[in-house]
Protein backbone atom coordinates (compact mmCIF):
# COMPACT_ATOMS: atom_id res chain seq x y z
CA UNK A 1 0.00 0.00 0.00
CA UNK A 2 2.22 2.75 -1.37
CA UNK A 3 0.76 6.17 -2.20
CA UNK A 4 3.32 7.12 -4.85
CA UNK A 5 2.38 3.93 -6.73
CA UNK A 6 -1.38 4.49 -6.38
CA UNK A 7 -1.45 8.10 -7.65
CA UNK A 8 -0.23 7.22 -11.19
CA UNK A 9 -3.16 4.83 -11.52
CA UNK A 10 -5.51 7.82 -11.31
CA UNK A 11 -3.58 9.52 -14.09
CA UNK A 12 -3.50 6.41 -16.27
CA UNK A 13 -7.17 5.48 -15.81
CA UNK A 14 -9.12 6.81 -18.80
CA UNK A 15 -12.28 4.77 -18.33
CA UNK A 16 -14.82 4.44 -15.55
CA UNK A 17 -14.31 3.09 -12.08
CA UNK A 18 -17.15 0.71 -11.22
CA UNK A 19 -17.52 1.98 -7.66
CA UNK A 20 -15.98 5.16 -6.24
CA UNK A 21 -16.27 5.64 -2.48
CA UNK A 22 -15.83 9.00 -0.73
CA UNK A 23 -14.63 8.59 2.86
CA UNK A 24 -11.85 6.56 4.48
CA UNK A 25 -13.39 5.79 7.86
CA UNK A 26 -14.98 2.52 8.95
CA UNK A 27 -17.99 2.89 6.66
CA UNK A 28 -16.11 3.83 3.51
CA UNK A 29 -13.41 1.23 4.04
CA UNK A 30 -16.05 -1.43 4.62
CA UNK A 31 -17.83 -0.48 1.42
CA UNK A 32 -14.57 -0.48 -0.56
CA UNK A 33 -13.56 -3.92 0.76
CA UNK A 34 -17.04 -5.16 -0.11
CA UNK A 35 -16.82 -3.77 -3.63
CA UNK A 36 -13.25 -4.87 -4.38
CA UNK A 37 -13.78 -8.37 -2.99
CA UNK A 38 -16.79 -8.82 -5.29
CA UNK A 39 -14.54 -8.01 -8.26
CA UNK A 40 -15.63 -4.45 -9.06
CA UNK A 41 -13.05 -1.86 -10.10
CA UNK A 42 -12.92 0.11 -6.87
CA UNK A 43 -11.47 3.45 -5.78
CA UNK A 44 -11.69 5.02 -2.33
CA UNK A 45 -10.72 8.66 -1.66
CA UNK A 46 -10.13 10.16 1.80
CA UNK A 47 -9.65 13.89 2.38
CA UNK A 48 -7.21 13.40 5.28
CA UNK A 49 -5.82 10.15 6.64
CA UNK A 50 -7.69 6.88 6.99
CA UNK A 51 -9.76 6.91 10.21
CA UNK A 52 -8.70 10.50 10.94
CA UNK A 53 -12.14 11.33 12.35
CA UNK A 54 -14.67 9.30 14.28
CA UNK A 55 -13.20 5.92 13.36
CA UNK A 56 -10.01 6.36 15.43
CA UNK A 57 -11.83 7.77 18.48
CA UNK A 58 -14.14 4.94 19.56
CA UNK A 59 -14.36 3.13 22.90
CA UNK A 60 -12.33 0.33 21.23
CA UNK A 61 -15.16 -2.20 21.62
CA UNK A 62 -16.69 -4.58 19.11
CA UNK A 63 -19.97 -5.25 20.85
CA UNK A 64 -23.66 -5.86 20.48
CA UNK A 65 -24.54 -2.95 22.72
CA UNK A 66 -26.02 -3.88 26.07
CA UNK A 67 -27.79 -0.53 26.37
CA UNK A 68 -29.58 -1.08 23.04
CA UNK A 69 -30.97 -4.23 24.62
CA UNK A 70 -32.26 -2.06 27.48
CA UNK A 71 -33.97 0.16 24.88
CA UNK A 72 -35.61 -2.88 23.31
CA UNK A 73 -33.72 -2.66 19.99
CA UNK A 74 -33.36 -6.42 19.60
CA UNK A 75 -32.71 -6.36 15.84
CA UNK A 76 -29.72 -4.01 16.18
CA UNK A 77 -28.22 -6.06 19.01
CA UNK A 78 -28.70 -9.30 17.08
CA UNK A 79 -27.04 -7.87 13.95
CA UNK A 80 -24.14 -6.38 15.94
CA UNK A 81 -23.50 -9.60 17.86
CA UNK A 82 -23.44 -11.54 14.60
CA UNK A 83 -20.97 -9.04 13.09
CA UNK A 84 -18.86 -9.18 16.27
CA UNK A 85 -18.46 -12.93 15.84
CA UNK A 86 -17.51 -12.62 12.18
CA UNK A 87 -14.92 -9.95 12.90
CA UNK A 88 -13.26 -12.02 15.61
CA UNK A 89 -12.90 -14.82 13.07
CA UNK A 90 -11.67 -12.56 10.26
CA UNK A 91 -9.25 -10.29 12.17
CA UNK A 92 -8.08 -12.26 15.24
CA UNK A 93 -4.82 -10.29 15.42
CA UNK A 94 -6.78 -7.13 16.26
CA UNK A 95 -10.01 -8.32 17.89
CA UNK A 96 -10.12 -10.36 21.09
CA UNK A 97 -12.44 -11.50 23.84
CA UNK A 98 -12.72 -9.26 26.92
CA UNK A 99 -14.59 -9.95 30.15
CA UNK A 100 -16.77 -7.20 31.62
CA UNK A 101 -18.02 -6.94 35.19
CA UNK A 102 -21.21 -5.05 36.01
CA UNK A 103 -20.79 -4.22 39.72
CA UNK A 104 -23.98 -4.48 41.78
CA UNK A 105 -24.65 -2.04 44.62
CA UNK A 106 -28.39 -2.75 45.02
CA UNK A 107 -29.88 -6.14 45.84
CA UNK A 108 -31.93 -6.22 42.61
CA UNK A 109 -29.20 -5.16 40.15
CA UNK A 110 -27.51 -8.54 40.02
CA UNK A 111 -30.56 -10.62 39.05
CA UNK A 112 -31.85 -7.83 36.76
CA UNK A 113 -28.72 -7.54 34.65
CA UNK A 114 -28.03 -11.24 34.94
CA UNK A 115 -31.33 -11.98 33.19
CA UNK A 116 -30.75 -9.27 30.57
CA UNK A 117 -27.28 -10.54 29.73
CA UNK A 118 -28.62 -14.07 29.33
CA UNK A 119 -30.74 -12.65 26.50
CA UNK A 120 -27.52 -11.10 25.15
CA UNK A 121 -25.93 -14.57 25.19
CA UNK A 122 -28.91 -16.12 23.40
CA UNK A 123 -28.86 -13.48 20.66
CA UNK A 124 -25.16 -14.16 20.02
CA UNK A 125 -25.91 -17.86 19.47
CA UNK A 126 -23.00 -19.96 18.22
CA UNK A 127 -20.92 -16.79 17.77
CA UNK A 128 -21.08 -16.09 21.51
CA UNK A 129 -17.86 -15.48 23.43
CA UNK A 130 -18.80 -17.10 26.72
CA UNK A 131 -21.78 -17.37 29.10
CA UNK A 132 -22.62 -14.50 31.42
CA UNK A 133 -23.15 -15.27 35.10
CA UNK A 134 -23.78 -13.64 38.47
CA UNK A 135 -20.64 -13.46 40.62
CA UNK A 136 -20.02 -12.89 44.32
CA UNK A 137 -18.54 -9.81 45.93
CA UNK A 138 -15.20 -11.59 46.41
CA UNK A 139 -15.01 -12.65 42.77
CA UNK A 140 -15.90 -9.13 41.63
CA UNK A 141 -13.10 -7.71 43.80
CA UNK A 142 -10.71 -10.34 42.48
CA UNK A 143 -11.47 -9.44 38.85
CA UNK A 144 -11.61 -5.64 39.29
CA UNK A 145 -9.47 -4.93 42.39
CA UNK A 146 -9.87 -1.14 42.29
CA UNK A 147 -13.67 -1.22 42.25
CA UNK A 148 -15.41 0.61 45.12
CA UNK A 149 -16.06 -2.10 47.73
CA UNK A 150 -18.37 -0.10 50.01
CA UNK A 151 -21.93 -1.34 49.45
CA UNK A 152 -20.81 -3.83 46.79
CA UNK A 153 -23.02 -6.96 46.70
CA UNK A 154 -21.41 -8.73 43.79
CA UNK A 155 -21.93 -8.35 40.06
CA UNK A 156 -22.52 -9.91 36.70
CA UNK A 157 -19.77 -10.98 34.32
CA UNK A 158 -20.27 -11.11 30.56
CA UNK A 159 -18.05 -11.14 27.46
CA UNK A 160 -17.65 -8.81 24.50
CA UNK A 161 -15.01 -7.92 21.91
CA UNK A 162 -12.19 -5.39 22.07
CA UNK A 163 -10.11 -4.07 19.17
CA UNK A 164 -7.78 -1.33 17.97
CA UNK A 165 -9.90 0.86 15.71
CA UNK A 166 -7.39 2.75 13.55
CA UNK A 167 -5.20 -0.35 13.14
CA UNK A 168 -8.23 -2.21 11.78
CA UNK A 169 -8.84 0.72 9.42
CA UNK A 170 -5.31 0.38 8.03
CA UNK A 171 -5.76 -3.37 7.56
CA UNK A 172 -9.03 -2.75 5.69
CA UNK A 173 -7.26 -0.29 3.39
CA UNK A 174 -4.60 -2.93 2.74
CA UNK A 175 -7.34 -5.48 2.03
CA UNK A 176 -8.72 -3.19 -0.68
CA UNK A 177 -5.32 -3.29 -2.39
CA UNK A 178 -5.12 -7.06 -1.90
CA UNK A 179 -8.23 -7.38 -4.09
CA UNK A 180 -7.01 -5.01 -6.79
CA UNK A 181 -8.76 -1.87 -5.55
CA UNK A 182 -7.20 1.45 -4.61
CA UNK A 183 -7.52 3.59 -1.48
CA UNK A 184 -5.79 6.97 -1.38
CA UNK A 185 -5.49 9.32 1.57
CA UNK A 186 -5.10 13.10 1.38
CA UNK A 187 -7.29 13.18 -1.73
CA UNK A 188 -10.12 15.65 -1.11
CA UNK A 189 -13.32 15.48 -3.15
CA UNK A 190 -14.33 19.02 -4.10
CA UNK A 191 -17.27 18.32 -6.41
CA UNK A 192 -19.33 15.76 -8.29
CA UNK A 193 -19.31 15.10 -12.04
CA UNK A 194 -22.69 14.68 -13.72
CA UNK A 195 -23.94 13.46 -17.11
CA UNK A 196 -27.47 14.63 -17.92
CA UNK A 197 -28.12 15.26 -14.24
CA UNK A 198 -26.84 11.86 -13.12
CA UNK A 199 -23.78 11.54 -10.85
CA UNK A 200 -20.94 10.16 -12.98
CA UNK A 201 -17.82 10.68 -10.87
CA UNK A 202 -16.00 13.22 -8.72
CA UNK A 203 -13.56 16.10 -8.87
CA UNK A 204 -10.73 15.53 -6.38
CA UNK A 205 -7.59 17.43 -5.36
CA UNK A 206 -4.37 15.80 -4.20
CA UNK A 207 -3.65 17.70 -0.97
CA UNK A 208 0.09 17.01 -1.34
CA UNK A 209 0.67 18.13 -4.94
CA UNK A 210 -2.34 20.39 -5.45
CA UNK A 211 -3.19 18.57 -8.68
CA UNK A 212 -6.86 18.23 -9.60
CA UNK A 213 -8.38 15.03 -11.00
CA UNK A 214 -11.68 14.35 -12.73
CA UNK A 215 -12.50 10.74 -11.95
CA UNK A 216 -15.38 9.02 -13.72
CA UNK A 217 -17.39 6.30 -12.00
CA UNK A 218 -20.49 4.25 -12.70
CA UNK A 219 -21.66 4.84 -9.16
CA UNK A 220 -20.46 7.04 -6.29
CA UNK A 221 -20.97 6.12 -2.62
CA UNK A 222 -21.00 8.88 -0.01
CA UNK A 223 -19.59 7.25 3.15
CA UNK A 224 -18.26 10.34 4.88
CA UNK A 225 -19.85 9.93 8.32
CA UNK A 226 -20.25 13.29 10.03
CA UNK A 227 -19.63 15.04 6.69
CA UNK A 228 -22.35 13.16 4.78
CA UNK A 229 -24.58 16.23 4.47
CA UNK A 230 -21.75 18.29 2.91
CA UNK A 231 -21.22 15.71 0.16
CA UNK A 232 -24.98 15.46 -0.37
CA UNK A 233 -25.07 19.25 -0.81
CA UNK A 234 -22.55 18.94 -3.67
CA UNK A 235 -25.19 16.82 -5.37
CA UNK A 236 -28.18 18.97 -4.42
CA UNK A 237 -27.83 22.26 -2.54
CA UNK A 238 -31.37 21.90 -1.29
CA UNK A 239 -30.90 18.39 0.14
CA UNK A 240 -32.28 17.87 3.61
CA UNK A 241 -29.70 17.31 6.39
CA UNK A 242 -29.81 13.77 7.75
CA UNK A 243 -26.91 13.75 10.23
CA UNK A 244 -27.11 14.73 13.88
CA UNK A 245 -23.69 15.04 15.51
CA UNK A 246 -23.06 13.78 19.04
CA UNK A 247 -19.73 13.99 20.88
CA UNK A 248 -18.20 11.22 22.93
CA UNK A 249 -15.16 11.89 25.15
CA UNK A 250 -12.69 9.40 26.65
CA UNK A 251 -9.97 9.73 29.28
CA UNK A 252 -6.85 7.55 29.37
CA UNK A 253 -5.33 6.65 32.77
CA UNK A 254 -2.44 4.60 34.12
CA UNK A 255 -2.91 0.84 34.35
CA UNK A 256 -3.07 0.85 38.17
CA UNK A 257 -6.58 2.32 38.02
CA UNK A 258 -7.74 -1.03 36.63
CA UNK A 259 -5.06 -3.59 37.58
CA UNK A 260 -7.04 -6.70 36.58
CA UNK A 261 -7.72 -8.06 33.09
CA UNK A 262 -11.48 -7.38 33.19
CA UNK A 263 -13.34 -4.21 32.21
CA UNK A 264 -16.06 -2.45 34.18
CA UNK A 265 -19.43 -1.62 32.67
CA UNK A 266 -21.59 0.87 34.56
CA UNK A 267 -25.08 0.45 33.09
CA UNK A 268 -26.64 3.75 34.19
CA UNK A 269 -24.96 7.14 34.51
CA UNK A 270 -26.81 10.34 35.43
CA UNK A 271 -27.64 11.01 31.77
CA UNK A 272 -28.74 7.45 31.04
CA UNK A 273 -25.59 6.34 29.26
CA UNK A 274 -23.35 3.36 29.80
CA UNK A 275 -19.89 4.09 31.23
CA UNK A 276 -16.97 1.79 30.39
CA UNK A 277 -13.66 1.43 32.21
CA UNK A 278 -11.55 -0.69 29.88
CA UNK A 279 -7.97 -2.03 29.89
CA UNK A 280 -6.31 -1.05 26.60
CA UNK A 281 -2.65 -1.18 25.53
CA UNK A 282 -1.45 -1.41 29.15
CA UNK A 283 -3.48 1.69 30.04
CA UNK A 284 -7.10 2.31 31.07
CA UNK A 285 -9.75 3.89 28.86
CA UNK A 286 -12.74 5.56 30.57
CA UNK A 287 -15.79 6.86 28.72
CA UNK A 288 -17.95 8.02 27.24
CA UNK A 289 -20.22 11.07 27.01
CA UNK A 290 -23.07 11.91 24.63
CA UNK A 291 -23.21 15.64 23.95
CA UNK A 292 -25.16 17.11 21.00
CA UNK A 293 -22.91 19.33 18.86
CA UNK A 294 -23.82 22.00 16.33
CA UNK A 295 -21.52 21.04 13.46
CA UNK A 296 -18.97 18.42 12.39
CA UNK A 297 -15.27 19.04 12.99
CA UNK A 298 -12.16 17.04 12.12
CA UNK A 299 -10.53 17.80 15.48
CA UNK A 300 -13.30 18.05 18.08
CA UNK A 301 -12.25 19.12 21.57
CA UNK A 302 -13.66 17.82 24.86
CA UNK A 303 -15.81 20.18 26.86
CA UNK A 304 -14.87 20.87 30.47
CA UNK A 305 -18.20 19.49 31.70
CA UNK A 306 -17.61 16.24 29.80
CA UNK A 307 -14.24 15.71 31.48
CA UNK A 308 -15.74 16.40 34.92
CA UNK A 309 -18.67 14.10 34.17
CA UNK A 310 -16.35 11.17 33.45
CA UNK A 311 -14.10 11.83 36.45
CA UNK A 312 -17.15 12.15 38.72
CA UNK A 313 -18.70 8.87 37.61
CA UNK A 314 -15.37 7.01 37.56
CA UNK A 315 -14.80 8.07 41.19
CA UNK A 316 -18.13 6.52 42.18
CA UNK A 317 -16.95 3.09 41.08
CA UNK A 318 -13.21 3.23 41.82
CA UNK A 319 -11.64 2.86 45.25
CA UNK A 320 -8.70 4.94 44.01
CA UNK A 321 -10.32 7.99 42.47
CA UNK A 322 -8.77 9.45 39.30
CA UNK A 323 -8.06 13.18 39.14
CA UNK A 324 -7.13 15.52 36.33
CA UNK A 325 -3.42 15.02 36.95
CA UNK A 326 -3.84 11.28 36.34
CA UNK A 327 -5.14 11.75 32.79
CA UNK A 328 -2.48 10.84 30.21
CA UNK A 329 -4.64 11.77 27.24
CA UNK A 330 -8.18 12.97 26.56
CA UNK A 331 -9.82 12.61 23.16
CA UNK A 332 -13.17 13.39 21.60
CA UNK A 333 -15.01 11.81 18.69
CA UNK A 334 -18.20 12.78 16.87
CA UNK A 335 -20.90 10.19 16.16
CA UNK A 336 -22.74 10.50 12.82
CA UNK A 337 -26.28 9.78 14.05
CA UNK A 338 -29.16 9.62 11.58
CA UNK A 339 -31.71 12.24 12.57
CA UNK A 340 -34.85 10.95 14.20
CA UNK A 341 -38.29 12.00 13.02
CA UNK A 342 -39.06 13.05 16.59
CA UNK A 343 -36.92 15.03 19.00
CA UNK A 344 -34.96 12.81 21.37
CA UNK A 345 -31.73 12.98 23.34
CA UNK A 346 -28.82 11.87 21.16
CA UNK A 347 -28.15 9.02 23.63
CA UNK A 348 -31.58 7.62 22.70
CA UNK A 349 -31.11 7.78 18.91
CA UNK A 350 -30.61 4.37 17.33
CA UNK A 351 -27.18 3.40 15.99
CA UNK A 352 -28.77 1.59 13.05
CA UNK A 353 -27.56 2.57 9.61
CA UNK A 354 -29.50 3.67 6.55
CA UNK A 355 -28.71 3.61 2.83
CA UNK A 356 -30.53 5.92 0.44
CA UNK A 357 -30.17 7.11 -3.15
CA UNK A 358 -30.64 10.69 -4.33
CA UNK A 359 -32.63 11.45 -7.52
CA UNK A 360 -29.32 11.90 -9.35
CA UNK A 361 -27.94 8.56 -8.19
CA UNK A 362 -25.62 9.45 -5.29
CA UNK A 363 -25.66 6.54 -2.85
CA UNK A 364 -25.30 7.63 0.78
CA UNK A 365 -24.74 5.27 3.71
CA UNK A 366 -25.09 6.90 7.13
CA UNK A 367 -25.32 6.05 10.83
CA UNK A 368 -24.14 2.72 12.21
CA UNK A 369 -21.07 1.96 14.29
CA UNK A 370 -17.71 0.18 13.97
CA UNK A 371 -19.13 -3.22 14.92
CA UNK A 372 -21.50 -3.24 11.93
CA UNK A 373 -19.12 -1.66 9.39
CA UNK A 374 -19.11 -4.82 7.20
CA UNK A 375 -22.90 -5.01 6.99
CA UNK A 376 -23.05 -1.30 6.20
CA UNK A 377 -20.62 -1.85 3.34
CA UNK A 378 -22.59 -4.83 2.07
CA UNK A 379 -25.88 -2.93 2.08
CA UNK A 380 -24.31 0.11 0.38
CA UNK A 381 -22.77 -1.96 -2.42
CA UNK A 382 -26.00 -3.93 -2.89
CA UNK A 383 -27.73 -0.62 -3.52
CA UNK A 384 -24.89 0.70 -5.69
CA UNK A 385 -25.04 -2.28 -8.04
CA UNK A 386 -28.49 -1.31 -9.26
CA UNK A 387 -27.72 2.40 -9.46
CA UNK A 388 -24.54 1.84 -11.49
CA UNK A 389 -25.97 -0.89 -13.71
CA UNK A 390 -23.23 -3.27 -12.59
CA UNK A 391 -23.32 -7.03 -13.10
CA UNK A 392 -24.68 -8.45 -9.86
CA UNK A 393 -22.12 -10.42 -7.85
CA UNK A 394 -22.72 -11.99 -4.42
CA UNK A 395 -21.09 -10.73 -1.24
CA UNK A 396 -18.14 -12.76 0.11
CA UNK A 397 -17.17 -10.48 3.00
CA UNK A 398 -18.74 -12.51 5.82
CA UNK A 399 -15.96 -15.08 5.51
CA UNK A 400 -13.29 -12.75 4.16
CA UNK A 401 -9.98 -12.81 6.03
CA UNK A 402 -8.82 -9.24 6.59
CA UNK A 403 -5.22 -8.30 5.77
CA UNK A 404 -3.01 -9.49 8.62
CA UNK A 405 -5.00 -12.65 9.32
CA UNK A 406 -2.86 -15.71 9.83
CA UNK A 407 -3.76 -19.33 10.41
CA UNK A 408 -1.26 -20.01 13.17
CA UNK A 409 -1.80 -18.26 16.49
CA UNK A 410 0.56 -15.30 16.70
CA UNK A 411 2.84 -14.68 19.65
CA UNK A 412 1.37 -11.96 21.86
CA UNK A 413 3.87 -9.10 21.90
CA UNK A 414 4.02 -5.48 20.75
CA UNK A 415 4.24 -6.61 17.11
CA UNK A 416 1.28 -9.00 17.21
CA UNK A 417 -1.08 -6.25 15.98
CA UNK A 418 0.57 -6.61 12.56
CA UNK A 419 -0.60 -10.21 12.29
CA UNK A 420 0.91 -11.89 9.22
CA UNK A 421 2.85 -8.68 8.47
CA UNK A 422 4.82 -9.03 11.72
CA UNK A 423 7.48 -11.10 9.94
CA UNK A 424 8.00 -8.31 7.41
CA UNK A 425 8.09 -5.71 10.19
CA UNK A 426 10.84 -7.72 11.91
CA UNK A 427 12.83 -7.70 8.65
CA UNK A 428 12.69 -3.91 8.68
CA UNK A 429 13.85 -3.92 12.31
CA UNK A 430 16.85 -6.04 11.32
CA UNK A 431 18.03 -3.49 8.73
CA UNK A 432 19.65 -1.32 11.40
CA UNK A 433 20.30 -2.02 15.10
CA UNK A 434 18.91 1.45 15.89
CA UNK A 435 15.52 0.42 14.44
CA UNK A 436 14.90 -1.79 17.49
CA UNK A 437 15.14 1.21 19.81
CA UNK A 438 12.00 2.87 21.20
CA UNK A 439 10.93 6.25 19.82
CA UNK A 440 10.45 7.36 23.46
CA UNK A 441 11.17 5.63 26.82
CA UNK A 442 7.49 5.82 27.86
CA UNK A 443 6.12 4.48 24.58
CA UNK A 444 6.39 0.84 23.39
CA UNK A 445 6.83 1.71 19.71
CA UNK A 446 10.09 1.09 17.86
CA UNK A 447 11.91 3.23 15.30
CA UNK A 448 11.65 0.45 12.73
CA UNK A 449 7.85 0.51 13.04
CA UNK A 450 7.90 4.14 11.88
CA UNK A 451 9.86 3.03 8.81
CA UNK A 452 7.31 0.28 8.17
CA UNK A 453 4.34 2.66 8.48
CA UNK A 454 5.96 5.12 6.08
CA UNK A 455 6.95 2.52 3.48
CA UNK A 456 3.96 0.21 3.57
CA UNK A 457 0.98 1.81 5.33
CA UNK A 458 0.71 5.17 3.55
CA UNK A 459 1.71 7.22 6.60
CA UNK A 460 2.40 10.73 5.30
CA UNK A 461 2.70 12.87 8.43
CA UNK A 462 4.00 12.61 11.98
CA UNK A 463 0.38 12.68 13.13
CA UNK A 464 -0.44 9.68 10.94
CA UNK A 465 2.22 7.66 12.77
CA UNK A 466 1.68 8.86 16.33
CA UNK A 467 -2.14 9.02 16.27
CA UNK A 468 -3.25 6.16 14.00
CA UNK A 469 -0.46 3.76 12.89
CA UNK A 470 0.64 3.68 16.53
CA UNK A 471 -1.63 4.92 19.36
CA UNK A 472 0.96 7.11 21.07
CA UNK A 473 -1.17 10.29 21.04
CA UNK A 474 -4.07 8.48 22.70
CA UNK A 475 -1.95 6.67 25.28
CA UNK A 476 0.36 9.47 26.44
CA UNK A 477 0.03 12.82 24.72
CA UNK A 478 3.06 14.40 26.45
CA UNK A 479 5.35 11.51 25.59
CA UNK A 480 4.14 11.59 21.99
CA UNK A 481 5.09 15.28 21.70
CA UNK A 482 8.57 14.46 23.02
CA UNK A 483 8.84 11.58 20.52
CA UNK A 484 7.67 13.64 17.54
CA UNK A 485 11.17 14.91 16.53
CA UNK A 486 12.46 11.34 16.30
CA UNK A 487 9.47 10.29 14.18
CA UNK A 488 9.90 13.32 11.92
CA UNK A 489 13.60 12.52 11.45
CA UNK A 490 12.88 8.90 10.49
CA UNK A 491 10.03 9.82 8.12
CA UNK A 492 11.99 12.62 6.44
CA UNK A 493 14.80 10.24 5.51
CA UNK A 494 12.33 7.70 4.15
CA UNK A 495 10.30 10.27 2.17
CA UNK A 496 13.35 12.34 1.10
CA UNK A 497 12.18 15.53 2.80
CA UNK A 498 14.40 18.21 4.32
CA UNK A 499 14.65 20.28 7.48
CA UNK A 500 11.74 22.59 6.64
CA UNK A 501 9.36 19.62 6.40
CA UNK A 502 10.62 18.20 9.70
CA UNK A 503 10.27 21.51 11.52
CA UNK A 504 6.77 22.08 10.17
CA UNK A 505 5.68 18.55 11.08
CA UNK A 506 7.01 18.80 14.64
CA UNK A 507 5.34 22.17 15.17
CA UNK A 508 2.03 21.08 13.65
CA UNK A 509 1.94 17.86 15.64
CA UNK A 510 2.82 19.57 18.93
CA UNK A 511 0.02 22.09 18.45
CA UNK A 512 -2.46 19.30 17.79
CA UNK A 513 -1.32 17.05 20.65
CA UNK A 514 -1.56 19.83 23.22
CA UNK A 515 -5.32 19.60 22.77
CA UNK A 516 -5.16 16.05 24.18
CA UNK A 517 -3.59 17.23 27.44
CA UNK A 518 -5.68 18.41 30.40
CA UNK A 519 -4.56 21.70 31.88
What does this 3D model show about the protein?
With 519 residues, the chain is an alpha+beta fold. The protein has helices at residues 3-12, 26-37, 66-70, 74-90, 109-124, 137-143, 165-178, 228-235, 304-317, 373-388, 422-429, 447-456, 462-469, 472-475, 477-495, 499-513; strands at residues 17-22, 42-45, 61-62, 96-104, 133-136, 154-162, 182-184, 187-195, 198-206, 212-222, 243-254, 263-266, 275-280, 283-287, 291-292, 329-338, 353-357, 363-367. Helices cover 35% and strands 22% of the residues. The strands form two sheets. Strands 3, 4, 5, 6, 11, 12, 13, 14, 15 and 16 form a ten-stranded mixed β-sheet that branches. Strands 1, 2, 7, 8, 9, 10, 17 and 18 form an eight-stranded mixed β-sheet that branches. A hairpin with a 5-residue loop joins β9 and β10. The longest helix has 19 residues, at 477-495. The mean pLDDT is 92.
Amino acid sequence: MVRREAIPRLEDEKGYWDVLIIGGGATGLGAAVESASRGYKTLLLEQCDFAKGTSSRSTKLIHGGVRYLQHGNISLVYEALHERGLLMQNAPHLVHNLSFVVPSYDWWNGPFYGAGLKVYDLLAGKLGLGPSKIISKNEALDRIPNVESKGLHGGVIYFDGQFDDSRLAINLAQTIFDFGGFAINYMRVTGLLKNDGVVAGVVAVDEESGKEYQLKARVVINATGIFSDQIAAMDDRGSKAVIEVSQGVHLVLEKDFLPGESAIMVPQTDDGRVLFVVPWHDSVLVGTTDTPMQKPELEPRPLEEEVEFILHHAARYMAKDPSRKDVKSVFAGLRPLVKSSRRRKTSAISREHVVFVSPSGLVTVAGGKWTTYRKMGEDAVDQAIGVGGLVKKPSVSADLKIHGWQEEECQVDNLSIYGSDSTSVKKVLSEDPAFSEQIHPQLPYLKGEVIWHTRNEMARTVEDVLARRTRALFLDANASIEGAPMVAELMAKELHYGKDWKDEQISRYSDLAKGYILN
